[in-house]
Amino acid sequence: MSSTQTLLFLEDDKDLQSLVCTFLREKGYRVEPARTAAEAMAVLARVPVDAAIVDGLLPGMTGADFIRELRKTQPDLPILFASAFWKDLKSHELLTRQLRVARIIHKPYRPEELLVWVAQLFAPVTPPPPPPEALEEADAVAGDDLAASLAALNAEYGARLREKVSGLEALLGRVRAGETEALDEAYTVVHKLHGTAGSYGYAEVSSAAGRLELVLKPAREGGGLDVGAMEEAFRELAAKAAVSVKPAPVAKAPGPLLPTEGVLLVVDRDAAVLAEAERLGKAHVVRVLTARTADEALAVARRQWVDGVLVHMHLDGPLGGITVAHALRAEEGLGMLPLAFTGAGGALEDRVAAAHAGASLFLPRPFTSQDFTAAAERMVAARRPERARVLVVDDDPEAITALTHALASDHIEVVGLGDAHGLMEALAEHRPDLLLLDVQMPGPSGFDLCRILRSTPEWQELPVLLITAHVGLEFRLAAFQAGADDYLSKPVLREELRARVQARLERARLSKERAERDALTGLLLRRPFIDGVRARLAEAQRQSKPLALCFLDVDHFKQVNDKYGHLAGDRVLTRLGRLLGARFRREDVRGRWGGEEFVVALLGETAASAKEILSRTAAELAGMTFEGDAGESFHITFSAGISVSSTDGASVEELLKTADARLYRAKANGRNRIET
């Protein structure tokens, strides 16, 4: 660090001033402290400074007012603004666009975080050696339907590289002629190439762009330009950009259709075990397929969709079930098939062998209804998780496109945002499950946005991953102190990106399940249900679609409890909850309102179509046989009321009120009916 780099540090807190000055001086900077605007002006009159750090609240005036005055005499001085109060995006826009503040740092901050941004003002962090391949399609991964589109996207980007390089060559010609504006444009182009090319599989182009960025940065900050170094770096970049593109792989045929209910394959020689599994499956709305041998199991798995396998640990001999599990997972598309084993006693060696085979559960033999239900639910959830939504915030459109194609799948939807100032609106509109943030953007940085989210109750738990070219210790500390959950370095490796995002999504899903699901029925509790309906209602209004809200109530449920026992009543609620969970689309919202009342929101359905859909569910429930605590059989029905937006109201509260009134009308009119 050059000792000629001098900082003005305007901060009226004496203790903080002492701490930061000591830290920055140890890092090689010369620091001129000031505690008032007058002292700062005196310093500026006496000593030329290379940058300023200004507190937001000063004695007698605000930091913004001081900067406004300072800009009259030093319009280009780099300034870092520190404040505990300027945390909204409109304030960011005022400071960064009107007062040209380089970066806003939120108090309380640590010296390490401040150092990250001070270092960025003067000298770029040297990028790490790029990996040999980045976001390049690896050896074919079974079931990866995105490989073809990703390769095509890489090819499209590669075809535009020469055009980008030609445009850059023209800009550099203007730079040699002394045009400052051209220098800024060229630096922006090179910076984006450095951050994005590697994500499209052109790691060497990214590395060469990074070296050219290092050459241009001092001139952009007012220093001299090494024309010879610029020419050499550009020639290297142009040479690296002339690369061939791998052809897209041949798309695979689609797999078996996904059934609406969960499908569990039970492999066992014991006919009694298979019969009990089939009985439990019918009771809990899970389709059970059976097989007695490994060959039968393989035939079933090849023929149709299977969510998971429950196999006897010692099928046809000691640890024979392990062989079956390995054979099933060796089949194309079944490499991650959820597994569970069952065995008598559950000896430690059996459990260890099951874990090594990839099993997530080990059930005692014979298994109980609760064991079976829990295993089925867990395997179905693992095999077909609800589609998660990831919001990517980056000012580079090509970076957003690369990340989208790397992540988008049947299980993940990706939404891009190019302007960080619109983050809060995008969160409200899309309600993502995870946020990917570029650290260095015009306006608020990734650190700024993390702090804003962590101070907003609604988004405090949202997983946040930062994407950056910085990898130093100071950056890592600052990232975690700002509230980020993880970070990725550029250029982003496709498989690493997927692994980190999937891990965070799965952890968030499990946490959300525990907090938002009713333990008895598996459906949403009242508060998360209302939140989900609000999001669907907003979606319906944006798309000019109707949304049907249905209120259900089990008929004569008190009599069920009194006559057949409370455990029988619980079985009724559990089975109805499973039925509602299995019979609708993923985008439909289902919940337990309380007691024997349930609620369902159907996106895009009218009163007539919603009644038809609900009538099928009612008929299916009426055909089920339930068992009382003493073994007696009985049947149940439900009544329902339906309201539809916007005919019956424009808010969730209005729709609920109308549907509830129609439910009571259905009960008054004799029950076992649906009113619209």
What this model shows, in words?
This protein is an alpha/beta fold. Helices cover 48% and strands 17% of the residues. It is built from 24 helices and 24 strands. A five-stranded parallel β-sheet has the order 2-1-3-6-7, with helices on both faces. The protein has a five-stranded parallel β-sheet with strand order 9-8-10-11-12, sandwiched between helices. It has a five-stranded parallel β-sheet with strand order 14-13-15-16-17, with helices on both faces. Mean pLDDT is 82; it is low at 124-146 and 243-255.
β-sheet strand percentage = 15-25%
SSE-based structural type: alpha/beta
Biggest β-sheet description: 5 strands, parallel
Quaternary structure classification: single chain
Q: What is the rounded Rg?
A: 31 Å
